[in-house]
Amino acid sequence: MRHIAPLIVAALMLAACGTKKAAVSEPTTAQQQSQTDASGLTQLDYMRRVYDNAVYAQNIVSNIDFSINTGKKDISVSGSLKMRKDDVIRIQLTAFGLMEVGRLEFTKDYVMIVDRIHKEYVKADYNKVSFLQRNGLNFYSMQALFWNTLFLPGTDKVTDDLLRRFNVGKKASSQVPVTLQQDHMTYEWLTDAATARIVQTNVTYSDGKSGDTRLTCKYDKFKALGTKMYPNTITLNGQTKATKQAHNVTITIDMDGATTDSDWEPRTTLSGKYKEVSAEEVLKKITNM
Q: Partners of 233 in the beta sheet?
């Protein structure tokens, strides 16, 4: 169970990536047509290149090695990642490569946290889980992080018209920054200038009172997945000063060759031996171990 705690903390930090719908200043079509990058592409053309890098696969599955560092602990565990587009993200943790000890399952409709050791679980609508509600967690925002693609907070997809809301910055070294400002949230995607591929996502929440919460998501070891390239290493670093004690958690997820396997059940079914508890109960128990 000690291995689960850092992942839970990181999951809470991932919640900072979602936000409720809000007004976003949208560049005019004329602005999009007049602003160009170093290669002569308009901002809209460049954004299309970025968005077109998204994989076509409906399923992404892989065994995973986790390297988790909390500043006080450095832990390596095995596990698996199973994702079905617009449906589910499932992370399973396995002790000694034999026994599953915990599971996180995010769907469009609910979040489930399963404690296999104590036979307890949480399954609730996002709006009924206080820590998700406070941070405005959005399933599609989290999905975009794991699928290495763009997202627009409060929406379930990015259309061609919505691409006009993003701002393309000037090329610096070999990267082109893409940014979006919304309420207290600042989103930045660093893209490779040659391929327009997203190599890093930065999300910052700042309200000037409780301190900043930051998430950095770095992508590496791109390999072919169908006709597109997909990162087989994802490194998540979450930092927050919004709690009584500052937290800094880094998780490196190394995939053992991502595949498009679709032969798996998208929903977890638990036996009658499991007891349903509140999110606060299970999180308190997990993080105190």
A: 220, 254
| Spatial separation of the C-alpha atoms in residues 88 and 111, rounded to whole Å | 10
Domains and CATH numbers, the chain: 4-18+39-287 (2.50.20.10)
* Token couple for 215: 């998430």
24 within 8 A of 187, measured Cβ to Cβ: no
Q: How many CB atoms lie within 10 A of CB 196?
A: 21
Reported as a single tens digit per residue, the pLDDT across 5-63 is 444 444 544 444 433 333 344 444 444 444 554 455 799 999 999 999 999 999 999 99
The dihedral of CA 283, 284, 288, 289: what is its sign? Answer: negative
The half-sphere exposure of 219 on its side-chain side, counting CA atoms within 13 A, is: 22
DSSP letter, residue 95: E
The helix (run of H) or strand (run of E) holding residue 51 is helix 43-51
Q: How far apart are CA 30 and CA 161, in angstroms?
A: 13
Query: How far is it, in rounded angstroms, from Cα 106 to Cα 12?
Result: 13
Angstrom distance (rounded) from CA 100 to CA 121: 14
- Closest of 11, 18, 25, 19 to residue 179, by C-alpha: 25
CA distance 242 to 209: 9
Q: What is the pTM of this model?
A: 0.81
Q: Nearest-CA neighbor of 188 among 161, 220, 159, 214?
A: 214
**Tokens read off for 39:** 């290669």
User: How far is the C-alpha of 18 from the C-alpha of 182, rounded, in Å?
Assistant: 11
